[in-house]
Amino acid sequence: MSAVVFLLLFLAIADVSVSVPIDNEYNIDESVGDSKTPPRPKADFETAVLYDDIAKPKTLSRNADPCTAKGCKWPKSGSYVYVPYFISESYSQKERSIIIRGLQSFNVSTCIRFVPWKCGDRDFIYIENKDGCWSYVGRQDGGQYISLNKGGCLHQSVVQHEVLHALGFNHEQVRSDRDTYVRILFENILPG
Known about the structure:
alpha/beta; 8-stranded mixed sheet; 6 helices
């Protein structure tokens, strides 16, 4: 298991360019209509972005760790975890290709399979050109945004990093068991 975690972290941190062909199964139908466009994820205007790219939903009714409180894993079906996605129409074909390659790179070494959203998919990721590069941690109820701003987020490694958050991975430095594995040298931290 540690090899899988290491590989996922390596893919997210390194600017790895996995060459995965874009086949028609993963292309998004450009037509717009009730059965072609998912509902927009619930707007959470009180969402804060922490640690540069982690979106935090309102916390009035939640435990500190939403995965512990209500479960945020994407369900496994047979050998794979299928995660429906939708890419906003605001991206060009070249930009969409970068995003799709980032999604398909998970096919190489994981059981994760990103599949185009279809009518009836309740939980899904909605990739949109919002402010900055950010995602929620884990599956959110009823659809969720991943923000990939055109002005700096459209790199395969950034797509992979934000998708890892949507899959439930947090930054290593905020893990509850962090201090078991690392020692913080507070004297090396600059004031402020």
